[in-house]
Design goal:
Helix content: over 70%
Distance between the termini: 9 Å
Oligomer: single chain
Number of domains: 1
Amino acid sequence: MRFVVIGVLLLILLSLGSALYFMMTDRSGTSRSVNALTVRVALSVLLFLFLIAGRHYGWLPAQL
């Protein structure tokens, strides 16, 4: 389970980095940075819900 949490955290950071890249380089007015930030927020909420469910159902120990 630890690797799942670390993997999702890395995906969140990757999405944040791509949003920064699109914000700095995209001059055409597309919504790619907004989409990348939306993915980041969705991943963060899913990770939070997974951690709550994992702790509640005993999938995760008290300390990771």
